[in-house]
């Protein structure tokens, strides 16, 4: 079992990956390490600007892309996508993709809640508007706000 893993690890930098680009194995290793390090640095920097949502999102997203993409230098993007679902990596891949999707859903839910709160807040300045909307919600949705 270990022999297969060792052979697979050694094949990352074999000549079959040479079709990816004209970089040598050492250059690809350095590029991968630099890409990974840059990604980690960007992810940590994103927490410095956590209070500024756009900067946080950009730094964190680019950091993730660089960190995940760093392995493409070792074996190429096509082989990386195939190997993401190997038995050794399938759980980490599923958790990573799950949290990416989960964060998008939670962000969308937060935006919807924020819009609803804004509408409710604005209705509070119009006399009887919240009561009218509440009565309409009871009538159409059988729900009371």
TrEMBL record:
<feature type="transmembrane region" description="Helical">
    <location>
        <begin position="29"/>
        <end position="49"/>
    </location>
</feature>
<dbReference type="InterPro" id="IPR011691">
    <property type="entry name" value="Vesicle_transpt_SFT2"/>
</dbReference>
<keyword id="KW-0472">Membrane</keyword>
<feature type="transmembrane region" description="Helical">
    <location>
        <begin position="56"/>
        <end position="75"/>
    </location>
</feature>
<dbReference type="GO" id="GO:0005737">
    <property type="term" value="C:cytoplasm"/>
</dbReference>
<keyword id="KW-0813">Transport</keyword>
<dbReference type="InterPro" id="IPR007305">
    <property type="entry name" value="Vesicle_transpt_Got1/SFT2"/>
</dbReference>
<protein>
    <recommendedName>
        <fullName>Vesicle transport protein</fullName>
    </recommendedName>
</protein>
<dbReference type="GO" id="GO:0015031">
    <property type="term" value="P:protein transport"/>
</dbReference>
<keyword id="KW-0653">Protein transport</keyword>
<keyword id="KW-1133">Transmembrane helix</keyword>
<dbReference type="GO" id="GO:0012505">
    <property type="term" value="C:endomembrane system"/>
</dbReference>
<comment type="function">
    <text>May be involved in fusion of retrograde transport vesicles derived from an endocytic compartment with the Golgi complex.</text>
</comment>
<dbReference type="GO" id="GO:0016020">
    <property type="term" value="C:membrane"/>
</dbReference>
<comment type="similarity">
    <text>Belongs to the SFT2 family.</text>
</comment>
<dbReference type="GO" id="GO:0016192">
    <property type="term" value="P:vesicle-mediated transport"/>
</dbReference>
<feature type="transmembrane region" description="Helical">
    <location>
        <begin position="95"/>
        <end position="123"/>
    </location>
</feature>
<dbReference type="Pfam" id="PF04178">
    <property type="entry name" value="Got1"/>
</dbReference>
<keyword id="KW-0812">Transmembrane</keyword>
